[in-house]
Amino acid sequence: MMSANHKNDERFRRSVVTLSADESWALARRLADGELDCCDALMVRLGSPPPLIAWNPDPQDLASTALRHVAEWWRDAAGAAGGPPAPDAVDPQMLRPALGSISLLDVLGGGQDFQLRLHGSDVAATLGMDMTGMKVGEMTVPFMAFLMVTYRAQVLRPEPLLLRYTPAMRFFLSAWWRIGLPLMRDGEVVRLLIGMERAPRQSEL
User: How far apart (Å, rounded) are the C-alpha atoms in residues 22 and 43?
Assistant: First the structure.
């Protein structure tokens, strides 16, 4: 008999919207250039409303305490470093109030793929799976095509990026606030610090 997890995985695979690498990078370049609605059509294909996207949000404008804490840490660390901080600057003690909401994503091949070095425990519990060690390009979660675009945009434009998106109701009940914070070494983005917290669902299409 097919397990529940296998059934879910098959359901996700049938619903994944795929983009070629060229299509994904093209959207990433548009997003990096400030075209904030460039992913709207992609999200419609995923059965989701258009996402909210904002570059360089003011931490004080973030309603989530955890995401505000992470954004403030990055702002202060970037100020001290004169630019995006290095991965070694990440201090779990400084980020303790938000640790369950934090994931770390390694950049592979300049953005050809991304691998979860750490999956936040609160996020994993909400999703019902721990994705630590998984590559984004191998994930069967439907909205990963959208997230891949946003990750690549931050490789091109190493600045904080705030997202609010709502997966189609048939996949997850949770909508998400997500902030991506780039970490750099030798002038290249090598890791993304991702803060995530559940959000009220946007209006369905």
Answer: 18
What is the biggest distance separating any 2 CA atoms in the chain, rounded to whole angstroms?
57
- If one counts every other C-beta atom within 10 angstroms of the C-beta of residue 201, the result is 16
pLDDT digits (tens, 9 = 90+) for 63-109: 888 899 999 999 999 999 999 999 999 988 888 877 777 889 999 99
User: Sign of torsion, CA 177 153 84 92?
Assistant: positive
* 177 and 153 Cβ atoms separated by less than 8 Å: no
Please give the single-letter amino acid code of residue 3. S
CA count, 13 A, side-chain hemisphere, 10 = 6
pTM above 0.70, yes or no: yes
184: CB partners within 8 A, 6+ apart: 83, 84, 85, 86, 158, 190
> What is the C-alpha to C-alpha distance for residues 129 and 116, in angstroms, rounded to an integer?
13
**Cα separation, 160 vs 20, whole angstroms:** 25
Task: Please count the other Cβ atoms lying within 10 Å of the Cβ belonging to residue 47.
Answer: 18
CA 108 to CA 192: how far, in whole Å?
A: 11
Beta bridge partners of residue 176, listed in sequence order: 165, 198
Buried-state track 135-160, b at ≥16 Cβ within 10 A, e below 16: ebeebebbbbbbbbbbbbbbbebbeb
**Comparing C-alpha atoms, which of 64, 69, 16 is closest to residue 163?**
64
